[in-house]
Design goal:
Number of helices: 15
Largest sheet: 6 strands, mixed
Organism: Zunongwangia atlantica 22II14-10F7
Shape: globular
Binding site for substrate: 71
Number of strands: 12
Order of helices and strands: EEEHEEHHEHHHEEEHHHHHEHHHEEH
Structural class: alpha/beta
CATH superfamily of the domain at 180-365: ATPase, nucleotide binding domain
Keywords: ATP-binding, Cytoplasm, Kinase, Magnesium, Metal-binding, Nucleotide-binding, Transferase
CATH class of the domain at 180-365: Alpha Beta
Pathway: Metabolic intermediate biosynthesis; acetyl-CoA biosynthesis; acetyl-CoA from acetate: step 1/2
CATH topology of the domain at 180-365: Nucleotidyltransferase, domain 5
Strand content: 15-25%
Protein name: Acetate kinase
Distance between the termini: 11 Å
Strand order of the largest sheet: 9-8-7-10-12-11
Length: 378
């Protein structure tokens, strides 16, 4: 930094699943290793070993790392901007565990591991929730007694903000260069976690995730939107505890609950082979995305561009096709040939004569975190 030159990059995937993989790239070196990675701590330690490896590493020792940037999912109302890690910051992240039980504990553990591996580096936290501070009260307040908002901060906060911020800014820049309207953007982030954001004049005005990162779109293991009556039925009639129901909705539902698989690649492969559960699950998933796109077009009185991003959003032509089916009346005309072509750069997948733009915008949360971390310490 500030040249934004990538010295090394990589990915740990299928954490806690059979066949965990670590991908590493530095210069001409490209490696993929199948390593047993039962949890995030093991994954981070494996990454640091690669970074400091004598043959393929990019730093001689831990002292050469000056700043470590961390993504933390939930900042509540305590954090509206990027901050340097202190004991107080860590305590507040810990206090928010109940609101993001799948994320904040791992995020904090990542900070603690990084502190031990890079003891002389500054640790910086970028919060997913900070981007959504611009949402109006009509979008973030729930229709429950007002005392819960005033006394206990019960409200929608929003997540995947680092990604939505990065891709929307890239999309606006792209549209402006083409002389196309860019006032009203819908950003669809589809990964193991999924969310959709309505962005007007560069500011988030509505978002699918809420007080915790569990509702909205269907996700890998999370149910997304669900009638609260189901929760009370499971507890009162079927005898589940509240903790068991919470575990079901967060870790056993979503695409896993519908198909037995949480990885979209596995689901699409089995759907193509004739698995009816997997085929139906893809349509249920895409249908929910379509409903949110329609509601956000209504909220903004139109749309200039719909963005697809993150692992599934960038790579699954199947989900994009289902989500945009029969949307021509809103000006969204998908070019199926373009939709089937993979790429690593921002690109349109709408038909040439379409009124509205449909874009695939590769996200780069790491770069966004690096930019914000660099700006803070300088």
């Amino acid at each position: 930094m500030p040249e934004e030159t990538v010295a090394a990059s990589g990915l740990v995937e299928r954490i806690g699943l059979e066949g965990s993989l670590l991908h590493y790239k530095a210069g001409e070196t490209k490696l993929t290793k199948e390593i047993d990675i039962p949890n995030h701590e093991t994954g981070l330690k494996q990454i640091t070993q690669f970074l400091m490896d004598k043959e393929v590493g990019v730093v001689e020792d831990e002292k050469h790392i000056q700043v470590v940037g961390h993504r933390v999912v939930h900042g509540g109302k305590s954090f509206s901007k990027t901050v340097e890690v202190t004991e107080d910051v860590k305590a507040k992240i810990r206090n928010l565990f109940p609101l993001a039980p799948l994320h904040n504990p791992h995020n904090l553990r990542g900070i603690e591991v990084a502190e031990s591996v890079f003891p002389e580096a500054k640790q910086v936290v970028v919060f997913d929730t900070a981007y959504f501070q611009t949402m109006p009260q009509k979008a973030y307040q729930y229709a429950i007694p007002k005392k819960f908002l005033e006394d206990h901060d019960v409200r929608a906060y929003g997540f995947h903000g680092t990604s939505h911020k990065y891709v929307s800014e890239k999309a606006i820049e792209y549209l402006n260069e083409k002389g196309l309207p860019s006032e009203k953007i819908i950003s669809v982030h589809l990964g193991n976690g999924c969310s959709i954001t309505a962005i007007k004049n560069g500011k988030a005005i509505d978002h699918s995730l809420g007080m915790g990162p569990a509702n909205g779109l269907i996700m890998g293991t999370r149910a997304g939107d669900i009638d609260q009556s189901v929760i009370f039925y499971l507890i009162d009639k079927l005898g589940y505890t509240a903790e068991e129901v919470n575990n079901i909705l967060l870790k056993e539902s979503g695409m896993l609950g519908l198909t037995g698989y949480s990885d979209m690649r596995d689901i699409e492969e089995r759907s193509a082979e004739g698995d009816e559960n997997c085929r139906l699950a893809l349509y249920i998933n895409g249908y929910k995305i379509k409903k949110y796109i329609g509601s956000y077009i209504a909220a903004m009185n139109g749309v200039d561009a719909v963005i697809f991003t993150a692992g599934i959003g960038e790579n699954s032509s199947v989900i994009r096709k289902i989500a945009l089916e029969d949307m021509e009346y809103l000006g969204l005309h998908l070019d199926h040939r373009k939709n089937d072509v993979r790429g690593k750069t921002i690109r349109p997948i709408n038909s040439p004569d379409a009124e509205k733009q449909i874009l695939i915008v590769p996200t780069n949360e790491e770069l966004e975190i690096a930019k914000q971390s660099y700006a803070l310490v300088n």
